[in-house]
Amino acid sequence: MGKNGNFNFREKVDQAALSKPLFSRMDKDIPSSIVVFLVALPLCLGIALASGAPLVSGLISGIIGGIVIGSVSHSSVSVSGPAASLTAVVLASIASLGSFDVFLMAVVLGRIFQFILGILKAGLIADYMPSNIIKGLLAAIGIILIIAQLPYAVGFIQDSGANFGARDNLLEQAIAMFKNFFYSLHPGAVVLSIISLAIIIFWEKSPLKNFKLLPPSLIVVILGVFLNLLFKYIAPVLHLSEKYLVNIPKIDRVSELVTFPDFNSITNPEVWGVAITITLIASIASLLAIEAADEIDPHKRKTPPNRELVAQGVGNTIAGLVGGIPLTSVIVRSSVNINAGAETKLSTILHGIFLLLSVLFLSSILNLIPLSSLAVILLVVGYKLASWDVISTMYKKGWNQFIPFVVTVVAIILTDLLIGIFIGSLVSIFFLLRSNYHNAFFIENTKIFKGETIRLELSNEVSFFNKASIKNSLWNVPQNSNVIIDATFSSYIDHDILEIFEDFKTTFAEENNINVSIIGLKDKYSAGKELDFVREDIEESKERSTPQEILDYLKEGNSRYVDGKLVSRRLRNKELMDFINSPPLATVVNCIDLREPLNVMMNTGIGDLIPIRAAGNLVDSHIIKSIDIACKQQGARFILLMGNSSNKIYLKALNEYMQHGYKDPDSLIAEALKAQQIPNKFEEKDLHIYADLITRWSIKESKKRIIKENPYLRERISQGKLGLATAFFNRENGKIEFSELYDSATVS
């Protein structure tokens, strides 16, 4: 195991190798790439316009984002392109630098920096983003999509369609839309939107769902073009003019696409400052976007963040060299890609190729597409990201998850993506610190032992700070493995970690033939309020002197075991001998059938108990001698005679006795029969009842024999210096029924 808790495999697991082959799902990827292309095209134009850059620069970035970054990245579903989150920075930078070609030099430098960040493995920041913040980001994007696309859906468009999807002055846009709604909508756009929405909503509820060749989103676009052409002849009032259609600028020659950077400006300090600013903002935006895309990926594949930074650096460097504006991984296009059914990154690459072909050859055809049809596709995506189910699910997870989620949504809508994420993260950290205040335990590193079975043992408290190491470890498990996730000692597990386990078990493990077992997991975890803190440490427990205190200590330990609130007793190897050299508290006599660990069942410290095992629960002279040595020589101050329910040793002996015609009973049950504790004859259905009766009789009889046959033990018990009690462990509920302390007054 490596220093960071990752597996030291002979060859590091390559996440790309675990993804589906590039051309394995062309039936899904080709239709989805067309849908993404149709949505991305006007977005590229709109963001370029909002950034104060040439319109063609947005198209260049979209093409490179699809072909170059799509090829280099290991993400199966993420789509890169010009991003609305960078519009304000790009606009201000172009103005401050004085020209677009000087700005391109800053883009080239910044993306080289981004490439270096990927090489230096700075992408780990993405693993530490809480899921409630990511879901808040997705919900905010969904609400923004709904607000931004609703005007196009109803035909409320004041400018040309080129600014489709721009986010500047979002609230002012929303207010203006509602003020002018009734007299500004276009009936043709409304009709197309209603028809398109009905198709998308009811597609999966009708026999059409069996038609897999084209996704409903693509059907909506094709039908929108056809209906609008039909309106021109049969219902002119519904016909949408060029103002309400996609508008691609005509490019006659490839050379018109290219703008080279001003390399002479490389010595300008302001260029370097802009480069660093764009690097930081774009890198964070890309990491957040791939984390969000992985969250909604139905296969829960994990995108390597460092590889993504490298891919973004390569793509942006090329974009800067040929005249493109900065690009990032984009949540909106990625969401559309996933919802359209994309399975591999072929969809992303093809969408970039389609953008290139459309610019060169298909602008006249694509300019027939109604913006209202595209708007409906994005409205549906926005609703899925911010649906009531998403909100109610977050609410049910508790206030410590719901409040940061809501704050993130509101902050992103009122400010921008990065500021909103920062504010939401601060609120989430507050709740984390609050829970850590209530649960003041040391958080141990995740332990995974490689062998025939990989075992992940969780620490006492697991928060989203442990998310990266746990997720990386699980997603690097080799195919055809056995995995055990042990949560027995965990008093609190964050929702993020529980979701990782669910995603791993239901998707990654199934797709890679990994057998997963999760043990010790509670139905519900609450931070702080339900935890029963035990403040005495192991050394204090060993100083207990009276038998009654020891018995109470064992009872309390079993209560914690039953309630699932165990105090962790794990120690480092170098401390083990110190605890074993301390005097034990008790010796426990039990049957070899009881394989459950005694120190866990009674939550005792290492070395607190000396187990003495035998076949059956009835002591003989040898066992009594062992008890004598444990107390006299090793210092045990308590004797516990312990039986357990459904004792297989007794069950087998009883069954053989019954099969032999109730003759020649095994010596293990002979004395119980002689003492008439069970009938001489019985039926098979009563075996478990009589096995438990023999167990209870044996431990009581053993108590009498110890007092009668060993003078030393009898004397110590009569003096109150040594305790004696019996116990019965119920395997059904984990509870141990302890007898009262043996009354020394009865010792003769």
Description:
- The longest helix has 28 residues.
- Helix 11 packs parallel to helix 13.
- The N terminus is likely disordered.
- The chain has 29 helices and 13 strands.
- About 45% of the residues are buried.
- A hairpin with a 6-residue loop joins strand 12 and strand 13.
- It is α/β, with parallel strands linked by helices and about 750 residues long.
- The strands form 4 sheets. It has a 5-stranded mixed sheet with strand order 10-9-11-12-13, sandwiched between helices. Strands 3-4-6-8 form a 4-stranded mixed sheet, with helices on one face. A two-stranded antiparallel sheet has the order 1-2.
Give the structural class. alpha/beta
- Largest β sheet strand count, sense and barrel closure: 5 strands, mixed
| CA-CA gap between termini | 60 Å
Task: Strand order, main sheet: write it out.
Answer: 10-9-11-12-13
| Bulk shape | elongated
Q: Assess the beta-strand content as a share of residues.
A: 5-15%
Uncertain residue segments: 1-18, 159-167, 437-452, 528-544
In DSSP terms (H or I, runs of 4 or more residues), the helix count works out at 29
Radius of gyration: 35 Å
- Mean pLDDT comes to 78
Number of strands: 13
Share in helix: 55-70%
